[in-house]
Specification:
single chain, mainly alpha, Rossmann fold, Serine Threonine Protein Phosphatase 5, Tetratricopeptide repeat, four-stranded parallel sheet, two-stranded antiparallel ribbon, 8 strands, 50% helix
């Protein structure tokens, strides 16, 4: 047998992707254990370790294999994962908890999670404890792929409630994940994929010999007789054990209690040959000879959680004598194990007591229970109720009371106050003593309840367990009885007129809520038959259907729906029962039950607007998504954030959900309330895997968002790396596409001063000679924002762009520069000066008039700015602008400054040598109705003398008092706005010019065709 195990270990090292099932030969199960050396045998035979490994042949084999694997594979690229499948103390016995342990070991092996696992740990569903088994499976797969080989050793999975699901999920892992599963049946793999291992005859003989030597009393008894007796014991035990280590141990435990030779020989000749026979023989002796051991066994069997040694000793030694409780003398752990004939073991880590093996629990829970423990459940309920009935215990049960009272019966107090109801509900109504104790406890619980104060309102959710210090002082007797499912007393209270819909408590719950929450089906039926309100809501808005869905009570869901409960009623969070069920560990069982019609799936959350499909996407439940889509859920409903389920999946990077929607033909071009498509959302969130999936599904990459931009236009403006833009182009984005304003991505990059994107787009083949609908070249629309803008302009000029090119309205880049400078509320003078110098250095004509009717120069435009820009005027003059250039109606910059009352600009022009004697060509009527020959700038100053006192002959401005200047300026502004003779010049410097004759940088342009004739003299 040892050679077979070694050969198997060799097979593990060289092959992958198989499941090993350690088979048991009988229906009850045979236990094996391989002994590779005497040293291993000696270590097992120590009494201390026997408590831990009794009946654990498969577990020992698993640990032996783990040691061998760890000694063989020392590389950090190989992971060894060991999971014990069934732990009675486990708070989460579902497949989710099992997979969580596997994932934790894989993460610990690498010391850091992968991206998929990190996303899972940061998810909302993980924080709320609602992660699905599928999500864990995907994370485990991602972690497994980080190793070259992963070896899973799964032990003790036979009793797991979701054994089938767990094994199915593990078998779907990649091929380099190897599985060793110890199980009683070999139905999960082929004949060649499993081996059967049993203890050899020699190993069993060695074990029996070691037990004789270590048991002082048995060893002394054997030494009184011939050596043949010892050899007979060893041979008979090995023979009768049939390769089962557990059976050999039970045999030795039975023989160790023999105190004379005749009894020893008789027992030896009658050794049982199966586990059931061995259990029956041991129980017969225990029940007839040791009541304390019998009580230890049935308390261990029926307890709702594993008891500690002290709790079990207290419970087994508790006897009722009237109103007094006595406790027998406590025994040591060794004595307890000895008296129970080895049927109990103590967990060294937790200190809790368990049956020696799962087969022992199966045997004692069957028909044997009626023979050996006929009154066990009554006795347990009796003890629990006797412990919790005293007044001081009642006072400590409530939420707002102090700690555990110090009394002789407090050893089991926590357990009794928590689980008394479960044990009492299993006792029939004919047990009058139990019924009296229940009535006494319930009455005292009501009579001694403290007043409800703010300090006692600690929780606003239903408790998972009532226990010491956890009872609510505002619950009625019917609430407590409904919570624990005690039918007889509840029926009596109902008959006496108890309020079935009493919700006057901090949670606002009725007795029906309590019964549904705990899954007490008979109690629910009793309350509803007594006309309890099936649609009652608690303070958080939950109905009983919400609670049944949240707790996964399938039978109650069916029953409540059959009784016409309102299935679409929302709680305070706006969720229906269906929406609340999604995200629970029972979702796959409960969600189908809650869908009666198609409309049930499309009901929206009254707070978030989410449908069931939205919630399944948000919580990453692909199986639920697939089911809802199969049932016809609407994929186009918008939630309060304006998103469809597909768009929500794109936002949260839920690739599986996106794939499912694409398979179902989801409409990809549906807009969110913000005007974005699913493709826009995935790109804005940086979820490029989802983006690629949408592209494969046929999404339009050039679609506009609410601002009229495509993704490439948005990227052209963004100061980010070029990788995203490159990805868009690789996916087929049109580099010459126009947005709603008529700009290409290259123009957007130029207008935003995004030099890296501008150069990148040029490298990718974007046209440099592109023009707007108004005939503006890239030189016209590039603003003087920063150095990158100047670099773009310089690049264009080096490509032989004409610095004097005109738009359809006759504006050159220099005109655009000046207009932008006075139109901006905070112009950057340095950038403007550098921009101007750059244009002039490439031949721009600073005195070039516009090609429009007005024929204004850059200096005219600077002077007519609504906000005076003295620095700009000075800069233009410094760069060579003529101060005496006339417009089409003969006005010079000096005329324009005088008309507008811009004193400082007027003085700057005078200082630059402006001719004050020049007259405009506009005809001015006189008093004699004779046409004049025009006006000088001084005439205009005198005409508006309210704000400037101008000596006619000196040509010098005489300053006025501050108040007079202020009033004069205001009067001037009003005068200019109302004076009809200024209307024509206002079209040059005012708002009409800005809106009609040219387009400022970043302005909205027409999206009409750009096939206009080029006005520039040369292009790149």
């Amino acid at each position: 047998m040892t050679e077979r195990v070694n050969g198997y270990l060799t097979m593990i090292r060289t092959h992958s992707g198989f499941l090993v099932s350690v088979e048991r030969f009988t229906a009850l199960g045979q236990v094996f254990i391989p002994f590779k050396s005497r040293a291993i045998f000696d270590s097992i035979s120590k009494p201390k370790l026997m408590k831990r490994i009794a009946g654990a042949g498969k577990t020992f084999l698993a640990s032996t294999i783990i040691d061998s694997l760890r000694n063989t594979f020392t590389s950090a690229d190989v992971a060894i994962v060991f999971i014990f499948g069934h732990d009675e103390a486990d708070e989460d016995p579902s497949s989710v908890g099992f997979l969580d342990k596997i994932l934790a070991q894989l993460v610990y092996r690498k010391r850091a999670p992968c991206h998929a696992t990190a996303a899972l740990y940061k998810s909302k569903s993980f924080a709320e404890g609602k992660v699905s088994a599928k999500a864990y499976q995907d994370a485990i797969r991602a972690e497994v792929n980080r190793f070259s080989r992963v070896m899973f050793v799964i032990d003790g999975i036979d009793m797991h409630v979701e054994k089938e699901r767990i094994l199915n999920r593990l078998q779907k892992l990649p091929d380099h994940a190897q599985l060793l599963v110890t199980t009683r049946e070999a139905k999960y793999t082929s004949k060649d994929g499993h081996i059967s291992v049993l203890a050899t005859h020699g190993d069993l003989e060695s074990y029996a010999c070691s037990r004789i030597e270590q048991d002082e009393e048995l060893s002394a008894l054997v030494k009184q007789y011939a050596p043949e007796l010892k050899f007979a014991i060893i041979r008979q035990v090995a023979l009768k054990s049939h390769g089962l280590f557990l059976l050999a141990r039970l045999h030795m435990d039975m023989l160790s209690r023999c105190n004379d030779g005749s009894l020893l020989q008789k027992s030896l000749s009658q050794l049982p040959e199966s586990l059931n026979d061995a259990y029956g023989e041991s129980m017969t002796r225990i029940v007839s000879q040791n009541p304390f051991a019998s009580r230890c066994l049935y308390w261990t069997l029926y307890a709702q959680r594993p008891l500690t040694v002290s709790e079990l000793e207290f419970a087994a030694g508790f006897e009722l004598k009237g109103n007094n409780a006595l406790k027998e003398t406590s025994s040591s752990e060794h004595t307890m194990l000895y008296e129970t004939a080895g049927l109990l073991s103590i967990d060294a880590m937790s200190g809790t007591v368990h049956l020696v093996h799962k087969t022992a629990k199966e045997y004692l829970s069957g028909p044997a229970a009626r023979v050996f423990f006929p009154t066990a459940k009554v006795n347990i309920a009796d003890v629990c109720l006797a412990i919790i009935t005293p007044d001081e215990v009642i006072d400590g049960c409530y939420v707002n009371e102090g700690g555990t009272p110090q009394n002789p019966r407090s050893g089991l107090l926590t357990y009794a106050t928590t689980y008394w109801g479960h044990h009492a509900s299993e006792v029939g109504e004919d047990e009058q003593a139990i019924q009296v104790l229940i009535r006494a406890f319930i009455n005292k619980l009501c009579w001694r309840r403290p007043p409800v104060t703010r300090s006692s309102v600690l929780r606003l959710e239903m408790p998972k367990q009532l226990g010491f210090g956890k009872y609510f002082p505002d619950w009625s007797s019917l609430h407590v009885l409904a919570y624990f499912g005690i039918m007889e007393k509840a029926q009596r209270l109902i008959d006496q007129g108890a309020d079935l819909d009493d919700c006057d408590n901090q949670l606002g719950i009725t007795p029906l809520h309590c019964a549904v929450y705990r899954g007490n089906e008979e109690m629910v039926e009793l309350l509803l038959n007594s006309n309890a309100n099936i649609n009652a809501t608690c303070k958080d808005g939950k109905t009983v259907l919400h609670m049944a869905a949240e707790q996964g009570h399938r039978k109650l869901i069916r029953f409540l729906l059959h009784r016409r409960v309102k299935s679409r009623k929302a709680n305070q969070q706006g969720e229906t029962a269906l929406q609340l069920a999604i995200g629970t560990t029972h979702e796959e069982a409960t969600v189908p039950l809650l869908i009666k019609t198609r409309f049930d799936m499309d009901v929206q959350n009254t707070v978030t607007g989410n449908t069931a499909l939205h919630r399944a996407v948000d919580l990453r439940r692909p199986r639920i998504i697939a089911f809802l889509l199969e049932k016809g859920a609407n994929m186009n409903v918008l939630n309060r954030d304006g998103m469809t389920p597909l768009q929500l999946a794109c936002k949260t990077d839920n690739c599986e959900a996106v794939s499912l929607f694409l398979e179902r033909g989801a409409q990809l071009e549906i807009r969110s309330s913000h005007g974005t498509t699913a493709l826009h959302i995935s790109a804005l969130q940086g979820n490029w895997v989802v983006f690629d999936l949408l592209m494969i599904g046929g999404a339009d990459i050039d679609a506009w968002d609410s601002e009229g931009d495509s993704l490439l236009h948005m990227q052209a403006r963004e100061p980010s790396t070029t990788s995203i833009a490159a990805h868009l182009l690789a996916q087929g984005a049109d580099i010459e596409a126009y947005n709603s304003q008529g700009y290409t991505p290259l123009q957007c990059a130029a207008m935003s001063g995004n030099k890296p994107k501008f150069l990148f787009l040029v490298e990718q083949g974007a046209r440099l000679d592109v023009q707007t609908a108004k005939g503006e070249t890239l030189l016209h629309i590039t603003p003087p924002l920063n150095q990158d803008c100047l670099d773009i302009v310089e690049t264009l000029l080096e490509c032989r762009f004409s610095a004097n090119a005109t738009t359809l309205s006759g504006l050159t880049p220099l005109h655009h520069l000046v207009i932008n400078a006075f139109d901006s509320p905070y112009p950057s003078f340095k950038q403007t000066a550098d921009f101007l110098s750059l244009l002039l250095s490439y031949g721009a004509n600073i005195n070039a008039p516009t090609a429009s009717y007005e024929a204004v120069t850059a200096l005219h435009l600077a002077v007519t700015a609504k906000i005076p820009r003295e620095s700009l005027v000075s800069l233009l003059i410094e760069k060579g602008a003529s101060v005496d250039t006339r417009t089409s109606d003969g006005r010079t910059p000096l005329h324009l400054a005088a008309e507008r009352g811009f004193h400082d600009i007027f003085q700057i022009l005078l200082d630059a040598g402006a001719d004050i004697s020049m007259k405009d060509t506009e005809e001015t009527p006189t008093k004699d109705n004779v046409k004049g020959d025009g006006q000088t700038a001084i005439d205009l100053v005198h005409k508006h003398s309210v704000h400037v006192n101008w000596p006619a002959h000196t040509g010098k401005l005489r300053p006025l008092p501050a108040m007079q200047q202020h009033n004069g300026l205001a009067a001037t502004t009003h005068s200019l706005d109302s004076d009809s003779e200024m209307s024509q010049i206002d079209q040059i410097g005012g708002s009409s010019l800005l809106s009609e004759n040219y387009s400022n940088w970043g302005s909205r342009a027409s999206s009409t065709s750009m096939d206009l004739s080029s006005i520039i003299s040369s292009s790149c």
